[in-house]
Structures are given as structure tokens and as C-alpha cells.
Amino acid sequence: MNEHGHLDGPAEIPPAETLDQRIIHERRIDELSIYERIIPRVLRNMLVISVLLLGPTFWFYRGAGAIGFACGAAVSYVNFQSLTRGVEGLADRIVNQNSPEKGGLIILRFVVRYGLVAAVAYAIFKVSWLAFRGFLWGLCVPVAALMAEAVWEGYTAFRRAS
Fold first, then answer.
1. Which end of the chain is more exposed for a tag (fewer CB within 10 A), N or C?
2. Which pLDDT band, with edges at 50, 70 and 90, does 91 fall under?
3. 109, 50, 47, 112: which is closest to 84 by C-alpha?
4. Sign of the CA dihedral with 77 first, then 83, 84, and 86 last
5. What is the dihedral of CA 53, 55, 56, 62, to 10 degrees?
6. Could you give phi then psi for residue 140, rounded to 5 degrees?
7. Distance of alpha carbon 127 from its chain centroid, rounded?
8. Which residues make Cβ contacts (< 8 Å) with residue 105, sequence separation at least 6?
């Protein structure tokens, strides 16, 4: 020790983790990076499914229904993105006390999301019943995208296991 009570030379770093703890920590980091990739994949799935279902929607409901479906798919895409940002902001606000996110703004986004869906649904319902049916089908696009993601996750889990 020197005169100030500090050690001379490099300090020894005590072993903080055992090998098992290090492996578990690395797996958790890998899992987090896997889950970070899910949201962009679901959003991409929503776009692909919307494009693929536009033809059958036009076939069953004609032009009005296809326009309604496109509006519903667009609203559900924006809604899902907003939900993702809202949940991330809320989690950041809970975990990080000095978060730049304001609590009132987070709640306002949640309310505006539902207001957007209600306003578009009302406008489409007033214009055409077939367009409204297409709109309701468009609102179901996130469910199909999440089901596709579940199938993909199941496939990759079985592929890794074998």
C-alpha cells in the first residue's frame, strides 16, 4: 500500500461468477437479443399477410371490402407499433426513474390508439357495410402475424433441440 491507502499496481479482480452463472447470464443475453428481433419480424409478417390477403378480400367483398381491409390492416399496423412503443416507454418509466418519457404522454398514446380505431371504424361503418366487414378482417392481421411468429418460434425450437 502507498501512503494514501491505495494498492500499488493493478487491483486483483475477484471471481464474480462461477462458470454456471456465467453460462446462465450469457443465455439470458442471447434470449433478450432473440426477443428484440421478434417485434420487427411481427411487423414484417403483418405487411406480408396484409398484401397476401388483399386479393382474397377483393374476391369476397369487392372494392369496398378491399379498401376497408386495407384501412383495417393499416390501423392495426400503426396500433401495434404504438403499443410496442407504449409498453417500452412504460417499462422504461417504471425501471428508470430519470426516464425522459412523461407518464401522461404514455397514457395519452394508449387512449389515442383506441380513439383512432374507433374513429376509422365509425367512418367506414357509415360509408359501407362491406367496407366495415373488410375493416374488421384487417384488424385481425396482427393475430395472423403473431400466429406465424409462434409457428416460426416452434420450428426453430425443435430444430435447435435435434
1. C
2. confident
3. 109
4. positive
5. 120
6. -85, -5
7. 31
8. 89
